[in-house]
Amino acid sequence: MNYGYFPGCSQTSSAKEYDLSLRKVFEKLGFGLEELCDWSCCGATSAHATNHKLSNALALRNIVLAGKQGIKNMVAPCAACYNRLITSQHEISMHPERKNETEELLSEKIPADVKVINVLELFFKIGLAKISENRKRDLNGIKAACYYGCLLVRPMNINNFDDAEQPTSMEMIAEAAGATTIDWNYKLECCGAAHSIVRKDIVLNLSKKIIDDAVLNGANVIITACPMCHTNLDMRQRAMKRKYPEHLMIPVLYITELVGLAMGMNVKDLGIDLHYVNFNYDEYIAEKLIA
Amino acid sequence: MGAYVNKDAKKLQPSFVSANLLTDTLPENNHTPFQKNNSDIPEEIRNRTFQDVSLCYQCGKCSAGCPVRYYMDIAPNKIVRLIQLGFYDEALKSSTPWICAGCLTCSVRCPKEFNLAGFMDAVREIAVKKKVKVKEKDILKFHKAFLNQIKRYGRLYEIGLVGEYKMKTLDLLSDVETAPGLFLKGKLGLLPDKVKDRKSIKKIFKKTDKKKINKH
Amino acid sequence: MKIGVFICHCGENISRTVDCPKVAEVCRNFPGVEYSTNYKYMCSDPGQKLIKDAVLENKLDAIVVGSCSPHMHERTFRNAAISAGINPFLVEIANLREQCSWVHDDVEEATQKAIELVRMALEKVKRDKPLTKIKVNVTKRILVIGGGIAGIQAALDVANAGYEVILVEKEPSIGGHMSQLSETFPTLDCSQCILTPRMVEVYQHPKIKLFTYSEVVKVEGFIGNFKATIKKKARHIIDDRCSGCGLCMENCPIKKKAYNSFEENLAFRPAIYTPFPQAVPNIPVIDETICTHYKNGKCGMCVKVCDREAIDFDQEDTMFVADIGAIIVATGFKLYNIEKKSSGSIYKGYGEYGYGKYRDVIDGLQFERIASASGPTSGEIKRPSDGKVPKKIVFIQCVGSRDESKGISYCSKICCMYTAKHAMLYKHKVHDGEAYVFYMDIRAGGKMYEEFVRRAIEEDNVKYIRGRVSRIYEEKGKYIVKGEDTIAGMPVVVDADMVVLASAMIPHDNAPLLARTIGIPYDKYGFYNEAHPKLRPVESTTSGVFLAGACQSPRDIPDTVSMASAAASKAIILFSSDQLEREPVVAKVNEDICQGCFYCKKVCPFGAIEVKDIKDINGIVFKEVAYINQGVCKGCGTCTATCLSKSIELAGFNNEEIFAQIAAL
Predict the structure, then answer these.
(1) Tens digits of residue pLDDT in C380-390
(2) Fewer beta carbons under 10 A from the terminal one: N or C of chain C?
(3) What CATH number does domain A3-119 carry, 3.40.50.880, 1.20.1050.140, 3.30.870.10, 1.10.10.10?
């Protein structure tokens, strides 16, 4: 069964390593991902914040392409893209007038049978056993705070693969990969998201709180599944350190990178060296290969 | 109504105050609620969100859980209240819809299942359409710069975005610590990653351009 | 047949849009009409006299009244007919108000429609047959289901009127939720102190038979003549031997295997237990699921210490059937639980409050037990996790209630009051403590209720914050409560030591099952429906079944007691006559043509249809047909419409009558 792959803009630049690790991990797990041909931006916050017709049209253009390419299931690893795509799909499925309007705009029929899933769902489709089976390395040293951010499990009436308030799917994946996970309070709090460039003050404060809570609850790594969360949590830590000298730097990994590490891939292959906060490999991983 | 108007009212007023001046200067006149409900704004919000603002019973749970509440000038629930009351100007010029990060915490927890994040999108959209002087104008500039990149390339060109945004805001000095880092790490491509069928993207933008639609 | 037509103006209600004199005039010429007139208020005394005089003067056989809905005054006009010597079922109403004048504007068209409506009624009345009321006997014994304050009050009232009562309670003791409460609003008197005398009175009353640890499993029959099957669960104690000394409970080696549900799971109970020391009856039960004897046949400690030989491990559930004339349902409520629900549930839990994972986030009944002198902390306010006295406590109202996203749109009515009481009790016990209440609205309608809430705020310095709480999480042993004061427009964060949720009142899980057993309707939550929200609030739509207390909707103790007494008085009225008269509008099966498909039995909402065997001369069954119990049938007509062989007829609404009515149009 082939799954479509909608990378999203970040995966081509600031979140290159997410793209890299995702492709490598799933290839090794024997799961083919077929990139959506000529995909375009989902519209992101800027479109839905200012022009909802544009927002729907940009998102659904990709669904039209998927239909043409014969894709029935498509993974959108970026939580924001994922949320945009399913929200637009939900809106046209609930309101035919919105569907007609958008179809007219695109001069295309929008297929109703393209299911967009996020990266956590994709791991569950493969089966967590498959991850455990492919474990090559002991991740015991990792105490992971799984950070879902706001868009991965919301809104709950559209997106109900996991609980919208107390999700556990990412923890299950991390544990299948051999990491220890911690229970914490800020796994769904917003990092500031699209305010990353304009209101750095907001992003800095919100991200700092998230990191502090993770550290307070004993985490030594934060795991994310969203390029925007990753940018805000990883890239802003230097500024945090400058503002709050007592700030403890904590590496932020993508869930795919974590699984990749467990499967024996190295830091460079997974692009972990591209992160701002250094992931000191030896500190976390006892080099003990599992037979 | 006419039957109850005192025809001698004018005579009773002090001679040095004209009738118009008196009514115009009374601040209460602008504060009678539910007067502007014939406006197109509630209708537009309904069209956009498929929900009526009367759903909201003002429990405040949205504001209570809002992660960016501290940066807003008016609590999110109060924006809904202002719209309910018909005080549109006050709602549209608030910084609140622009500070809203669209994280959906409010929508997920709303006891009335009112999609407040969607409502905020609608308020922003109306504010832009009505050319309201936006308090958080940099955020609007950012969105415009972002969409310009998409319009041009079909995908986000991050360097282009940052460049355009900085030109728009003349904020040239911030982010100096991160951008070079990104280059060094080889993350930011120097050239934009383009969609081949850019015509279709242009068409979408053309068809949804509010200014052009309005001209028709 | 001589028919009289009487057109009512209903003041101006009808005559404003219907030309009443014209209707009367036109109708006079219809075949069969002997007399026709119109009058301003036909339902008034002079109006009724007008009908009576006209009947006698013109020797009328039947009448048609053009007036308001039959729901309103059918009975009035039938009584007028009786006094003039006409069978009341030879009276037809043409509804000229609700179905004509109120819904039309055009006078000419409305008048024409009114004429048509009268014409239709005329065709029906010509075919109406005189009917006589059905008489049934009454068994003067009542079944009360539920032994909380509602059931206790109802049972005592009926028993004190001299009738026998069977009181069935599913728990080992009567008392219900009221026995769990610490003090009651708005007087702050001790709940147990006012309740236990009543519990004892029930136990000692010669007219009340008490069955605790028992359930009603089947109800058959109809008003005045029900048969209820009651299951008495095995207590494993021989009732009349037990003295209630309590030695068995003290000596039971199993101490911590089961939570004490009376203490709202804040304490444990032994395998042999009474729910609480004042239990009525004071006879323990053995919990087979944890008792060692039922695991491996060993232990038997209780047997050793019981010198009255009251323990009987082999006791089994027993069933018995009781003849009763009426039922009072008083099964009460339970509290909404914030835990994660299965996907099929109409309720959703509160993930934002932790789905119940925080031990010091408790509900209202748990707080009652903590504040109660007889509770697990002997009335000292301590938090469940570590037993520390909370110095900062937060109360959150409307948890579950008024929250459609969690499945409930209604207001639970009592939470505003009990929260004010909780905060007050807390302040009375922890003098240096701070109490915060998050509320949406304060609904304190009731005698001295508003004053009570104000007292909490003004005298006891309870801090009220208007706004729903969005999130609770634990940080360093504190519970961070994130709210917003919507009046000030300010975010509010409280680092509380303990949080009390004023959870919604919801029906018991098995409320719908019991409703189906008895045959009474319930709403989407499982609350039992009253027959009329204003005029028949304590009756169910099933005759002879009455409702009391929170099984019908959330209510407080005074309301529950009032309702229980009202239900009791309804039952007593029923028992005041030896025979009941019932409307003769019931369905009847033509056994010759009935095919025995029993679709009618499936659709009958009242369970009135039974299978009847038709036997030949030798007593051999050769056919099964439907039989309609005239005591149970409500005359709704569902069976008539469903019957494939057209063998069921509804008296007063048979096919001939209805078709003639339609044909007249």
Answers:
(1) 999 999 999 99
(2) C
(3) 1.20.1050.140
